Amino acid sequence: MSDNSAKNYTSLQYLKGVGPKRAEALASAGILTPEDLIYYFPRAYIDRAVVSSIRQLAVSLRAEQDVFFNNIPNLKSENTLIARISTVQEKQYAKNRRMLIYKIQDETATAKVIFWNRIDYYSRSFKEGDLIVLSGKPELDLNGSVTFHHPELTKLDETEEIDYSKGVLLPIYPLTEKMKASGINNKTLRSIIKSILPICIDKIAESLPEYILEVNKLPSIRETISILHFPENISQTNLANYRLKFEEIFFYELFVNIIKSNFKQSHSGLKFNVRSQLARKLVDNLPFRLTEDQKKVIREIANDISTGKPMNRLLQGDVGSGKTIVSLIIMLIAIDNGFQVALMAPTEVLAEQHYRTITKFMNSVDSDIKISLLTGGLRTSNKRENINSVESGQTNIIIGTHSLFENEIKYKNLGLIVIDEQQRFGVAQRANLIKMASESLEDKSSIPHILVMTATPIPRTLTMTLYGDLDVSIIREMPKNRKPVITKIIFESEIQSVYQFLRDKISQGEQAFIVYPLVEKSEKLELKAATEHHKYLSEKIFPELSIGLIHGQMNWTEKERVMLDFLEKKYQILVSTTVIEVGIDIPDSNIMVIENAERFGLSQLHQLRGRIGRGERQAYCFLITKDNFKYQINRKGMKEDEQLASIIRLKTMERTTDGFEISEVDLKLRGPGDILGLKQSGIPDFRYINIVKDYDIISKAKNQALFVLENDTQLRLKENITLKEKMIKMLRNSENFFRIG
Ligand code: ADP
Ligand code: MG
Fold first, then answer.
1. In what order do the strands lie in the sheet with 312-317?
2. pLDDT interval class at 739 (50, 70, 90)
3. Is the CB of 455 under 6 A from ligand 1?
4. Once rounded to an integer, what is the mean pLDDT over residues 626-640?
5. Is the separation of the CB atoms in 343 and 397 below 8 Å?
6. For the chain, N or C: smaller number of CB within 10 Å?
7. What residues are paired with 316 via a beta bridge?
C-alpha cells in the first residue's frame, strides 16, 4: 500500500463507528477515503411495493413450468423476498457431503433455502428466528415447493424492519466477507455514510456540463449520490442510476470518438480509383450473383478507399456469408491502383485455403495476377522464392498468417491489408503491421487501408461500443442457395438411430464429421480420449467404413493431409476435435455429429455447424447429449446455472441458425466479458453500465458525445472545460487502449 493510501485509510479509521479493524476491511474493498465511501452504492433496494411474497412466487412458477424452456429470460430472473428463518437443518447426502436446509416463512407461505457449499459459514451467520432479505432464482422442487439454491442473504436488523414496515426504502449494500467479519453490516454502513455525507458532498464536483444535465434530464452528481444512499422512492433511484450509467458511457464515447477523428486526421490514406477493370471482370465471371448485402458492403468499402483517408473497417458476416469474394474484389481495386495487397489468415490451413480459392477465382478471369503464399509449412527454397517475388514487387497478392508481419519482409507498396478473423491478432501485431506496410509505400506519410473480417457475429449492443474505433459493415443475408442446417438434440441412448442415419447417407455418397469435445485436462489425455473414440467408432460401430482422425496435437501439415484425404473421400467419416472449427471446405460433408454437445460453448457450436450446409444439399447437425438432461434438470453435484445454460445452448442451436440471434443468447448467458476476450480488445470494465442491457442509454450517450464534438471538436468552449480535463486524463491513462494507431 502506498503512503498516500495508508494516510487516507487512517482518515477513515477515525470516523465515528469505524475504527482500525473496520477501516482495514473497507480498505481491502478499495474504500480508502470518505469519498470512496460515498461512492459505495447499494446494490439493491428493498421496497414493500416490489418485494414478492412466497405465495406469489409459487403461483407464477407453477404457471411457468409448462413453458419452462421457451422462457429463457425468466430462467435468469432474480426475486427478492423478506422472510424469517423458521428452522435450520444440516443433512448428509453422500459420503462426506453436507447440505444446509433453511425453512423460511413470510406472511403468505413457507419456502426452502439450500446451501451445498460453505455450510459452516452460513450456519454461523444465519440462525433460526433471523429476519432476512433474500435474492435469488426460485424454482419448484419435486414436491412443488418454492426452493432457492445458494441465494444471496442479508440479515435485517429489527429497527430496519420497523423502517421497512413503515414503507421506507431499504438500501442493501454489497458487503465483503471481511466487512462482515469486522462487524460492518448493512445498518452500520448506512449510519457511517449518513454521518459523513453532509460533510463530503459539497466537495464533489460536477463532471457533466450544465447543458448536458438539462438536455438529458439528469440529476446533479450531488443529488445522485444523496438519492442513492437515502432514496424516497424507487423512481428516484432509477433516475440516479441512469445518471451514473449515462456519465460513464458518455465519457467513454467521447473518448473513443476523439481518438477516431484524431486517427483519421493525423494520417493520410491512399486514394484509390475504384473503377477497376480487374474487379469488373471478376464479378462478370462469377458462377453466382452477389447478394444485395455483398454489394452493399462493397460499396461501403469502395467509398472508404476512395476518400484519401485511411480505412479501418470491420466486415462482419456469419460463416458462409461470402466475405472472401468481397475482400477479393477490394484487393483487385487496390492492385489496379498499383498496390500490393496482403491477406492474413488465422491459421496456415486457412491461408492455404484462401490461396486455393483465390487462385481459382483469378484463373477464371484469365489475368496475370501473381499470388504468393507465405507460410511456415513451405519448404525453405519455395519460401525464399516467394519472398523474393514479394520484395521485387512481382507478387500482387500475398497470403499468409501473422508471420507475414513478424518476419523481416520488405513489401513493395503494400496498400491494403485484409485480416480474416481478427480476434486472434493482438494490438502489438497490428501496430507492427501498419508500420511495415507504411514503410513499403512510395508515399511514406500514408498508411495502408485495413479491412478486418470476422464471422463471429457481434450483437448490436456491442458493435456500438466494442468497435467504436472501427467502421462496421455487416452482411446479414446468406447466399440464396443455402438451406438452413436441420439441427436436432439427440440423447445418448438414441445414438444408434444417428449412426444408422449416417450409414444411409454415406451409402449415397455423403460424408460426415463426428466432433469430439476437448474434455481432458491435459493434452496427452485428450489425445488419448480422441484416439480411443476413433478406435471405438472404426472397430465397433462402422467397421465397414474408413474413418479419419484429426486433432490439435497434429502439426499443420498433418492436419492438412487428413483434410485433403477427407476431401478426396479417402474417409467417409472424419472424427475430430474442435480443430475443424475453421478450415477447408468439404462440400460433400453435410452431416455433423457433435458428441457431449452440452460441453461446447454456443458460439463454438455455431462455428462448428458452419462447416456444413454450404452446398445445395440438405445438411444435418446432431447434438448428442446426456440422457439425464431429459429427466433431471437438477442433477446433484453440478451447478444448476451451468446445467441450465447448457440446455439453453442446445435449445438455441436447435431453434435457429441465425448467428446474430445465437450471439445475443450467448451474450446473455456468458456476459460480455467472455465474448471475444473483451479485455484484450481494450473495452474497459464498466462499473455501472451494462453493455448488453443498456442499449438505449448507450445510444443516447453516444449521440450526445457526437453532438458535443460536432460543435466543439477541440473542446475549447468554456462550457466544455470539465470534459476537456477529463479527456486529457483518460488519454494519459490509455496506452494501448486502441487497437490501431
Ligand atoms: P465466409 O464469409 O465464411 O468467409 P466464404 O467467403 O468462404 O464465406 O463463402 C462461402 C462459400 O459461398 C464459398 O464457396 C463462396 O464461393 C460462396 N459464395 C460467396 N458468395 C456467394 C453468393 N453470392 N452466392 C452463392 N455462393 C456464394
Ligand atoms: Mg472466411
1. 371-374, 397-400, 340-344, 414-420, 449-454, 312-317, 471-475
2. very low
3. yes
4. 54
5. yes
6. N
7. 454, 474
The finding on whether 143 has its CB within 6 A of some atom of ligand 1 is no
211-215-219 Cα angle (round to 5): 80
The per-residue pLDDT for range 452-487, each reduced to its tens digit, is: 898 876 666 666 665 555 778 989 888 887 788 999
Alpha carbons 405 and 342: distance in angstroms, whole number: 10
Ligand 1 pocket, 606 CB below 6 A?
no
CA distance 307 to 56: 62
The Å distance, Cα 252 to ligand 2 centre, comes to 32
CA 330–ligand 1 middle distance (angstroms):
15
Q: Is the CB of 354 under 6 A from ligand 1?
A: no
- Determine the Cα–Cα distance for residues 345 and 397; give it in Å rounded to an integer: 13
Question: Who has greater pLDDT, 469 or 58?
Answer: 58
For 229-279, how does the pLDDT look when each residue is reduced to its tens digit (9 = 90+)?
A: 999 888 899 999 999 999 999 998 898 888 777 766 777 889 999 999 999
Which atom of ligand 1 is nearest the CA belonging to 610? 3
Ligand 1 nearest-atom number relative to CA 475 = 2
Q: Which ligand is nearest to the CA of 457?
A: 1
CB 104 within 8 A of CB 113: yes
Would you tell me how many other CB atoms lie within 10 Å of the CB of residue 678?
18
Three-state secondary structure call for residue 110: strand
Work out the angle between the directed axes of helices 602-609 and 640-655 (0-180°, nearest 10).
Answer: 30
Q: Is 42 in the pocket of ligand 1 (CB under 6 A)?
A: no
List the grid coordinates of 362: 483469378
Q: Which residues pair with 373 in a beta bridge?
A: 399
Taken in order 169, 221, 25, 175, the sign of the CA dihedral is: positive
Cell of 644: 441450465
Compute the distance from residue 291 Cα to the ligand 1 centre, in Å.
Answer: 10
Location of C-alpha cell 486472434? 424
Ligand 1 atom with the smallest distance to the CA of 324 is 6
Q: Which ligand is the nearest neighbour of the Cα of 614? A: 1
The answer for residues whose C-beta is within 8 angstroms of residue 449's C-beta and 6 or more apart is 269, 270, 272, 304, 305, 310, 311, 334, 415, 416, 417
Whole-angstrom Cα distance, residue 244 to residue 241?
Answer: 5
Torsion of CA 143, 146, 151, 154, to 10 degrees: -130
Taking only the tens place, the pLDDT of each residue in 234-244 is 889 999 999 99
For ligand 2, the distance from its centroid to the CA atom of residue 327, given in whole angstroms, is 10
